Amino acid sequence: MDVAQPFARPAAETMRLGTLILTGGASSRMGADKAAMVWRGRRAVDRVAAVAAACGAEPVLTVGATDLGLPFTPDAQALAGPVGGVMAGAAALAARGCERALVLAVDAPTLRPDDLAPLLRAGAPGAAYDGLHLPMVIELAAVPPDAEAGWPVRRLIERAALARPPCPPDALARVRGANTPDERLALLAELEAFERHQN
Asked: Does the residue 123 lie in any domain?
């Protein structure tokens, strides 16, 4: 007779997935707040939130120092870095009943849902593209209990034992996002061409 295993970990596809959009960076190389910058009529943060919603990852929370008009969780300390944002956001998602997080950077507003598919399909405990820090998908239980805000993201990824699949080459620029005005111009040109083709 089969005995049920009540404590078996649920499959990744059955775990509730929420989104954390990290907005707490200083934007020093861009020279302006990256979250509020307008990309073809929409703020970067709104574009990233729309991609998350299209992937079925809700709720969508922004994490940082500034409330941008979306559901918001403040960093525990100013300029806490990405890992500090993940820690604050993971606690907020867990309180909302989530078990996994899709973690996105606000400086990648031209991402497409298909760009995230390999990460979303990854098994436990999650994945981040090889050689990149964000985006990532991570089970909240995999966030190391001793993680600290000052950790490099690479250390969090290693300690959480996330898979490291290769990034699809045609998605690499969109996944890396824009940290400088020149990178933004290049992505804007690609976005304009893509949206014109869609219409």
From this structure: yes
Residue 84 lies in a domain: yes
Count of the separate structural domains present in the chain: 1
Can you give the CATH number for the domain in which 141 is found?
A: 3.90.550.10
Q: Which residues have C-beta within 8 Å of that of residue 135, sequence separation ≥ 6?
A: 102, 103, 104, 105, 108, 111, 116, 119, 128, 129, 175
Task: List per-residue pLDDT tens for the chain, 199 residues long.
Answer: 343 444 444 566 678 999 999 997 656 667 678 899 999 999 999 999 999 999 999 999 999 988 999 999 998 777 778 999 999 999 999 999 999 999 999 999 999 999 999 999 999 999 999 999 999 999 999 999 999 998 999 999 999 999 999 999 999 999 999 989 999 999 999 999 999 988 7
Q: What share of the chain is helix, strand, coil (3-state, %, to 5)?
A: 35, 15, 45
